[in-house]
Structures are given as structure tokens and as C-alpha cells.
Specification:
The complex is a heterodimer of chains A (about 250) and B (about 350). With about 250 residues, chain A is mostly helical. Chain A contains nine helices and three strands; from the N terminus they run H-H-H-E-H-H-H-H-H-H-E-E. Chain A has a two-stranded antiparallel sheet. In chain A, strand 2 and strand 3 form a beta hairpin. Chain B has about 350 residues and is mainly alpha-helical. Chain B starts with 5 loop residues before the first strand and ends in a 5-residue tail after the last helix. Classes of the chains: A mainly alpha (about 250), B mainly alpha (about 350). At the A-B interface, strand 1, helix 4, helix 6, helix 7 and helix 8 of A face strand 1, helix 1, strand 2, helix 2 and helix 5 of B.
Amino acid sequence: MSDITDTTVRPAPDPLADGTPAPGDERMWTARLRGAAVRALPPGKLLPDRQPSYVASWVYVFGVLTLGAFTVICLSGVVLILKGPSWWHESSVGLFFNSIHLWSVELFFFFMVLHLWGKFFMASWRGNRALTWMTGVIAFLTSVGTAFTGYLSQQNFDSQWIGTQAKDGLNSVGVGSFFNVLNFGQMLLWHVLLLPLGVAVLVGLHLLLVRRRGVVRPLPAPGRARHRGVGLQVSSAAPVAEEPAPDGADR
Amino acid sequence: MSGTAERPGSDSLAVASRQPDAEPWHGPTIRYDLVKEFLVAVVAMAVVAVALSAILSSPDARPLTIRQWAQADPSDFVATAVTELNGTSPTATYGPPYNQWASGEGQKLGPLGIERWAGVHVPVDTSVDFVLAPLGVAAQSDPALAAALRQYASATAGRQQAWATAYGNGLAHAGFGDGGVTLPPGRYGPVAPMMTGLLDMARTGSLDADLLASPQFYGTDYTKPLLFLADGSFMANQAQAQHLTGTQWGMMNETGNYPGQAWLWLYTMWYQVKPFTTTGNADALVWATMMLLTLGLLLVPFIPGVRSIPRLVPVYRLIWRDHYRRLAAASAGTVVPPAAQQPQRA
């Protein structure tokens, strides 16, 4: 892939500055990928230290608390993995870590649902953010599957009962042929690897999209004249610009 | 977290608020330390999770075993076992993915029998897997049981059914003791010693091991013992006592006073209401309903009417109330300091 015949001595470029490759390197796949990544998410956009003044509401806390709970889930899950699936049944320390795992899952879903409803009532898909909404919904669904396989992997009466009841729903649509909820080994592997990996990837993509598009603007201010039939418009002495449709400019 | 010191943008708040949503924000900004906020969130969630764990712990009801079942309720065990033998148990007549249809056609979505499409991928022959194969192991050291198995195997299917049916009817008047099953006189053939032998195996725990038997040394598939357990009443009675059955919001709950999978409330709710409570296609219909609703949630940004709900429900006014207050003040020519109006967070 490298051109070893090119022995020209040139100053070393600083590709991290703006992602621009050195002359002659433009067609390299790595250079093109780096350039596209830096253009899409320059450092200031990826990790900004300032936000629009309207990002000062407690509703924005629910997303980061979901992330915080997810981190605790992963950390407590790693401890349970290190000691094996039977440990928490036989050890008080193991039971404590299992409890942390359980309660962080409950916190995760509590704040995730608050985050979802908050974003719904903020119409957060506006401004070309539909994909952000969709990755969030798919992350939620994948999280439900992750928690479900966790309950199936507990090796106790809850696992037995949930598995024998859940099989009927899955079998009724043919899923049970490939996803056997009574197979402990299969469920455990889905729970500790495939599904958490899926959640992590989806959450990562969701966050990158949030950073790329920025935080959605407030809906047009209430209490003033209606505009275009889609919201309420602030009136002021200054000329009023054309208001974007809150539910139309979302693709 | 950092304070909310405001820095003016190139546009005023009023002007910036009127720009298209897809455009970068050129209005005033505040300090927002994302990294610090994330770490604080992790610590906060860890503290709350540890506190809840210390106070409430987590449920861990011991799993049921075939041995426990046979010792606690031998009548239910034997009654279930004979239906596994003659192919009339719920698992024996289940259909895919465990076996071919013995009767009926399974659940459908309209004309579509999706349940059958995937075929048999987890084969279970209840007669062989739950009864004859385990008995074959025990018969290696029990000549009488071996003779009974040979007699059963050499009989016609009709004769086998007649024995099993007679045995099942006789169980209504049976007595159970340490010596096995005491039945009124009847034409049970070899089924009587076979069921007694299976009950003995179950009571000692050897049936638990035999049902898990894998062609390899290691095994992690509990499909067979769980299906056997679920065919009887013993497991369902335990679940009833723990408020876990379908009419009690089923698998959304867990043992003890714990929240369980509360996020499954919508899925579980359908099983409590008509027409899902009165149809034989409940599972397929509930799944189809949930798939449609899930698709709807996913596509909210593109569904006219649904995507307009947020502007009709004034929750957003509460969320952005400080922004609107400052915007109104800016329009009126007065200034409202953001830090005085906003929570102390980044």
C-alpha cells in the first residue's frame, strides 16, 4: 500500500491539525477516512466545552445518567464474568455484585425512558436528527433484549419461569428456532457479549450523531402568534425570519 | 459541574432562536463540561446502585429440580410422565421448533402460519427423551425394568396407547409411598413398572442428570428438563404463589418484591385484555402488535400527526422555560442573567 520508491524528504505534515493529508497522500484510504472523520467531527465539535444557552434544563441530565448507569452495569458485569456464572449464588460478595448489576439495570431503564420521553416532547428529531432518534430507539430495544437474556441467565427460578413462558411468544413467530431461551449457554453468551456489544455500538453511534448535529433547538416560543400552522412564533420589534417547521425539517 | 457563564454569540438570543434548526447555533453559549458531567453521572449511579444493593439486595429463588418435583408432588410427576410417554403432553403436541405438528396447526397471523415456517430446530421426542431413554439407562442394572421396556417396545402403538391411557385413568385412585405407586387393579401392562421406575429415578435425582445428558461431556442446554417441568402443574403452582403467571402480568415480574422487567409492561399488558385473552393466537397477535408499535416508535419522525404531538402537548414549555423567559426578556429589551435562572449544572 505504501510507495517505497518515494524517497523525497518533506516536512512531516500534522494530519491531526485539520485532517488534511500531505500532498500526494490524498488517495490513501487511511488519509481519506481520517479526513472524512475530522471534517464530520472536528475536535471542537466532538468534545465541545460550550453549549447553546438553551441547554440549561434538567431534562438533559437523563441522557448522561443513562450513560452513567450503563457504565456501572458494564463494570459490575465484568466482575461477575471474572468469577463465573455460579459465583453470585454461593458468595455474599457475589450476591452484592449481582445486586449492583440488577439495580444499575433498573436505573439504566428508568433514566433511559425519561430520556426517551423528554426527547419525544422536545421533538428532538427536528433539524436532520431523525437518525439520532432512530439509533436511540434501536439502542433501547437492544437493551431490552440484553436485560431479558440476563434474566434468563440467572440460573434460578426466575430464569426457569421466564424462559418457559417467553418461549411461546418467540416460537409463535418462528424466532425460537434460532433463539432458544431454554438454552442457558446460548442465552449467557448473547447476554455477556453480543447484545452488550450491540448496545455499546448503538450508544456510541447515537452520541456521535448528537455531537455531529448538535443539541436540538427549542420549539418556537409559546404565547405568541401562530406561524405556518406548525408552532408559535416569537413576536418582536425586529423583523421575524421564516421559522423552520418543527416537524417538517427532520430529514 | 461547571458554572453556566454565558458568552454572547455572533447573533443575539432572539436572532439565533429564529435560525433554521439545522444551522449551527450562533447565539449565546454557556460552559458545559461534558467529561466532568459524565464522570459525576457514573459516580452518582454507582453510589445509588450500591446503596440500593446494600438495602434491598437482589432475588435469588432456588431453581426447581425434577427431584424436588417428584418428592413434593409424585402424583403430578407421574401423571405428566405418562402423557410424555403416550405423546399427549403440551410439549409432545407443541409443534415447531420441538417437533412436527401432532394436531392443530399452531398459531397464525391471519393466513400466515409463521410458527411453522422455521421448522424443527430443537428436536424433542418426549416419549424417548423424557421416559424411554432415561429408563434404558436404569434398566442396565434392573432386569425387571429391562423386561418391561422390552415388552413395551415390542407392543403395537395401539396397545401402548391403551396401557398408557389405562394407567392415566388409574392414577386418579393411586396412592404414593416410598415403595412407589399403588394402583387399583387394571390393564396397565409394562407402563406401571416403567412409571414406578421413572419416579424412583426422579426421586433420587438421577433423572435430572439424564435429561441433561449431552453427547459431549459438557452441557449448557436445559431445554429438555425445563420443558418436562413446565408440562406439569408443580412449576406453575410455584409461579402462582409468586404472582408470576400470565394473568398476574407474567414474566414482567420476578420473585419477591422487586421491580422486575418493568419495561416489558406494554408487552405484558396485551395478555391481560381482549381480544388477546380469548384467542388461541394470542402470542402471535401480541408479537405482531408489538412489532407494529415498535416500528411506529422508530419512525415517529416521519409519521404525520404523531410527530406533531410535542407541539400540542406543552411539556416543552416546561423543559425550556428559562430559555423562553430570557427570549421574551431579550425581545422586550431587558436582560435576564442565565445563571440566576438555571440549575447549577453544566
